[in-house]
Amino acid sequence: MKIRGLVITASLFIAAVALAHDGGDRDHGSKPAKGHSGELVRTVRDATRRYHDVRNAEADGYQLMFGCVSGPDDGAMGLHYVNMALVGDGVIDPSRPEIVIYEPLPNGGRRLIGADFLIFYGAWHAANTGTPELGGQLMHLIDSPNRYGLPAFYTLHVWAWKPNPTGAFVNWHSDVSCEQFEGVGG
Question: Helix/strand/coil (H, E, C) string of the chain?
C-alpha cells in the first residue's frame, strides 16, 4: 500500500510538471550559467544517448505518461517517458534523468529531444540546504500550496538533443509539436 501511494503521488507530480502552462510555471529554470550549461547538456547527452531507441528507455524502466504535452502558444514539451523508481529515489543526478522526452514523428516513431529532472522539495531539503542545481542551473521551484494539490517540488528541463531557440533549460520547446502524436499515453 505504501508503494502504491508513492506511485500515485509521483504520478500526480509528473502530471503537474507535464501540464504546467500558466505564467508562474512557464519559466522552467534560470538563464544559462556561462561555462556550465554546455557541460550539463553534454552530460545529459552522454546519459541518454542509448535512448535514441525508445525501446532502450522502456527496457530501463521508462514508460510513456500523459500523451503528448503541448502548450496553448509556447510550443510543446513532447512525450514524457517517466522512470518512477528515479522519481521516488530523492536524488538528483545529471547522469540519471527521471524523465526522457521525445517528439512524435509522422511514422509513429519517437525522436529523443531532451530530459527532465525533478525532486520533491521535502526529499531534497531532508538532506540539503539551498536550491538544487545541475551544472550551474538552478532548478525551478513550484511551491505549495499549488494548483496541483501536491507538495512543493523542483524541476529542470534540459533540451540536449534538439536545440530550443528560447533556451536549453526552459520548460516549453518552441520548435516541438504534438501534431504527429496518435495515441493517449501510458
Answer: CHHHHHHHHHHHHHHHHHHCCCHHHHCCCCCCCCCCHHHHHHHHHHHHHHHHCHHHHHHCCEEEEEEEEECCCCCEEEEEEEEHHHHCCCCCCCCCCCEEEEEECCCCCEEEEEEEEEEEHHHHHCCCCCCCEECCEECEEECCCCCCCCCCEEEEEECCCCCCCCCCCCCCECCCCCCCCCCCCC
Among 7, 9, 6, CA closest to 152: 9
Q: Is 73 exposed, middle or buried (0-12, 13-18, 19+ CB in 10 A)?
A: exposed
**The residue to which cell 536545440 is assigned:** 163
Q: What is the pTM of this model?
A: 0.77
* Residue 151: partners with Cβ closer than 8 Å, 6 or more residues away: 120, 121, 122, 144
The identity of residue 138, as a single letter, is L
What is the tens place of the pLDDT at every residue in 84-108?
A: 899 888 889 999 999 999 999 988 8
**CA-based max dimension of the chain:** 46
Instruction: Write the pLDDT tens digit of every residue in 122-133.
Output: 999 999 998 999
